[in-house]
Amino acid sequence: MMNSKFLMCLLLGVASASLLSGQKITTEKFPVQYTLLPLSPLNPAFTTFSVNVHSGGSSLANLGLTPTSLANLIKFQGFKKVSGTSGHFRVNVQVGYLSIGKETTENTVKTTKHKDGTETKTTYYYRRTSFAIPVSYRVTDFEGKLIKEGSVSSQTTGKVISSKQFASYSALNTYWQDNRNNLIYGEAKKFVTKQVKSIQSLLSNSYDYRKITYEKDELEVPGKKVDGYEAFNKAYETVKKAFENMRPNEPIKDLITAVQPTLDFWLGTMDKYPMGNKKTEKMRHACLMNLATVYFWLEDLEQSEKYANECLQISWKDGRPKRLLKQVEEVKKKFAINKINTRHIDRDLANAEPPSNSTDDEVPVFEETGNMATMEGYIINEKGDTLVGDFIVNTEEQMELNFGPEGNVVFTCEVDGEAEKNTLDPTTIKAFQIKERNFMILSFTPGNKGNKEAGNHLMECIYDTDRIKVFKFYPYDNKLGDVKMEYAFQKTSEEVPISTSSTQFLLFKKGMAKYFADCPDLAELAGEGEFENEEDSLIQAARIFAEVCE
Known about the structure:
Layout: H1 4-22, E1 25-36, E2 48-55, H2 67-71, E3 80-81, E4 89-95, E5 99-100, E6 104-113, E7 119-132, E8 135-141, E9 146-153, E10 159-162, H3 169-207, E11 210-222, H4 229-243, H5 253-270, H6 281-297, H7 301-311, H8 319-338, E12 372-381, E13 386-394, E14 409-415, E15 418-422, E16 429-434, E17 437-444, E18 455-464, E19 468-474, E20 486-491, E21 498-499, H9 508-515, H10 520-527, H11 535-547
Parallel strand pairs: 2-3, 2-4
Antiparallel strand pairs: 1-11, 4-8, 5-7, 6-7, 7-10, 8-9, 12-13, 12-16, 13-14, 14-15, 16-17, 17-18, 18-19, 19-20, 20-21
């Protein structure tokens, strides 16, 4: 037989649970519309604006963008946009040149576990690079006076991008050669668009009168099984129906009249649920929170603040009243800044006209035309002087470095107050550095096209250790015709770099095996065809020689 004390406790527990469930409170949504007031309001007489986007040469076109497409991203609801003339305030956006960073090949090892307990490790390779595009803005009034200016990106706030991953160097290189430009340009296009949109958001918060039409707030209603549900639900429906007629640009006088009976209901009902009664305090909280919420949207901020603070005296769900009190403070500040006491204003722009006495803005000057990547660096001239300046790379047709009078790379600097340009002629310089990339003039015999004459050539050191270096050769004037970039090894014991495209490497596997004969394990890998005559594979061979071979 069940113990009588246990049965009594069980019945008390059920009764307690029933009581708690009887206080269940839910929330129901209702619509609100209003005008979001600006944080830094402009002259009240300003009713028009204009937007201009400036860039160097065809840099935007190469990204699939136009000044017009970017200018269309800048919008204000509280002002009329005018084109072909200057508005009361003007937004000028400057998009600088695309700057490409150093490319590196990275790898990651993934382990696959098989059913028999064995594991297979696969190395996947991918290419990484970075780019930067300065984007800035300047806001002036129709008299040319500065209102605001700033930068949303610079040459030092670029973006790193990575390619897909491949299980072999050759597959990665094939993909990169075919997709490099599209990948970089595509990411750069998204980057510029995002930066201009950030300008739009920043300026809109500062100056615009945005119409908010899709927001919702909540009222507290007891559960259907709770005594009083019908009256609370009727009050909610009354508020919802009244607020459906709210508009951001129309006064709320009629709205106040429509919901006044509901406010009276909550005020009269609240006293039925006194403070300190744990059984009913949730119902009191519902009355107080609903009053605070509706008074907030009726713009009676003092009453809203009063009832929200009373909500906090009930130890139940203090998150909503705390958030509402923060909203009240924010709206009070905006009322003071804008010198008004309502978020329901009508800015009639039908007859808005730009000022007739405007001053033209100064158009920014871009030093180069075309799509230019600007990169910091220096050169060491034949006298041994180090000249610091910028390398301007025209990437309109190609993004690879192409040196020479007809190439796409020019070094610019200032000497004795005068601007100088240098096309990096090997006969006039000793070395130069573009960002982290090191170039030098070395005695070298190119192997392509059977060139047998040694000369001083542009070489980039792409791998550097005490035991071995790997170079990339760049033809300068290409007098021999169709001489392409190639690679070279130089061990410490060798006086000059040796081209991997020379006769010595004509049969590449055998040539590699013979070249690394002083490291049997590496020579064996080379003889088995482990390496290819391309950058990353050659660097891999050099790393094994430098780090593994004795």
